[in-house]
Structures are given as C-alpha cells and as structure tokens.
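Lab meeting, item 3. Inverse folding demo.
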C-alpha cells in the first residue's frame, strides 16, 4: 500500500514514516504545500495523510485538489487543530477521517487500514477474487484455501492487481505504486516483467487460474475474461 504523508514537522514526519514503513507501507512524504500539491497531482496513492497548516499553503487545498482530480486515495487529515469548524470543513471537502495531534501511531495505522478497506476493498478485511483470498493486514494469500508464500513485491503487486481488477494498468503505474517516485530515474521497466512472471507462476502452481493478461502496447489487466 502506498501512502503520501504531508507533514512539515521533521521529527513527526520521520517517526510516522519509520512506523508505517515497518508496517509494510511504501511511504512518500512532502514537507510543504508546493511539494504536496506536486506529488498529489502526479502520483497515485492508496491513502494521503495531510496536515492543515503547511508552509506555503493550507492542507485543505490538497484535499480539494485530490477530490477535483477524482483521486481514489483515502484522505486522513492529521492536525493540531481540534476545532469543530476545521473538522467539519475537512470532512465536507471530502476527507475520509480526521485525527487530532498528538495521536498514537497505532491509532493512525488502524485508521489508515480502515480507510483503505473502505476505499479499495468495499469495507472487507479479506479480498476474494475467484479462488484467491488475500488478507492485506496479515499480508497473507491463499489459493483454494492453501497458503502460498510471496515476496513483499509480489504480494503488493497482487493486491494492486486485484484492487484494479478488469482495468488496464500501465507498467509505469505498477512501478510508481510499488517503488514510489524513485522510479522517475529508472530507464527501464523490464524488471517488472520478472515480478509478474514469478507471481503468475506461484499462483498457477497452486491451482489458480491465469488472470494476469498482457495488453499489447498498454500494460496488464487482472481479469477472469
């Protein structure tokens, strides 16, 4: 799961990034309004954590930007402001949750999971696609009830595919989702093929159908058809 953290306080930004990274998230961060607006406009995220008070602007305008662009990301406002007006304004703009500082990182993690479940998995804790069952929080996969072992990237790739089932996904989107904006400097996406090949082999080896379709000249699609 890919998270954008918009937070200007260096120590808090560092501690949140470290905690979420340990929890298995790919976390990118922005320390001011301009950087946050740029990232929110260019990249896709599963969840965006945004502070209201930022150098150079108001975090609520990031919320507006995400909603105007019809982003699929869940949005959680994290703010030291505890006023009712700020909470109402943020939620009415389209934020999915509001967490007042200071907060426990475990509570933040629980809220991120809840938002992602609602936004990407219709509120379900377990994702089912035909004979494949995925538990994102436990990071486990079963095929026909039998557990299979995937690498972290293979697991993230499978969740990304199932979250976007029946949609064509470009190699660029896959790379950005799994490796973040470091992929901007990559001169090839050939390594993605290896991860897809290994994931397909493991799934089929345990009795799954072959649902990863190559869409010539466009990318890939995870589909029964």
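The presenter then showed the designed sequence:
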């Amino acid at each position: 799961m890919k998270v954008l953290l918009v937070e200007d306080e260096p120590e808090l930004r560092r501690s949140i990034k470290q905690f979420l990274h340990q929890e298995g998230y790919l976390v990118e961060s922005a320390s001011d309004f301009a950087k946050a607006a740029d990232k929110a406009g260019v990249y896709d995220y599963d969840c965006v954590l945004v502070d209201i008070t930022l150098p150079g602007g108001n975090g609520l305008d990031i919320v507006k930007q995400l909603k105007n662009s019809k982003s699929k990301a869940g949005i959680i406002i994290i703010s030291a402001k505890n006023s009712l007006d700020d909470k109402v304004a943020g939620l009415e703009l389209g934020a999915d949750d509001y967490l007042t500082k200071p907060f426990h990182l475990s509570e933040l993690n629980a809220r991120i999971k809840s938002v992602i479940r609602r936004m990407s998995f219709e509120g379900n804790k377990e994702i089912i696609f035909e004979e494949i069952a995925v538990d994102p929080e436990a990071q486990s996969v079963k095929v026909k009830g039998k557990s299979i072992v995937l690498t972290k990237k293979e697991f993230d790739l499978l969740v990304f595919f199932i979250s976007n089932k029946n949609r064509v996904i470009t190699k660029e989107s896959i790379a950005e989702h799994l490796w973040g904006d470091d992929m901007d400097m990559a001169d090839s996406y050939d390594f993605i093929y290896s991860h897809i090949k290994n994931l397909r082999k493991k799934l089929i080896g345990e009795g799954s159908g072959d649902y990863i379709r190559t869409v010539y000249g466009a990318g890939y699609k995870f589909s029964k058809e």
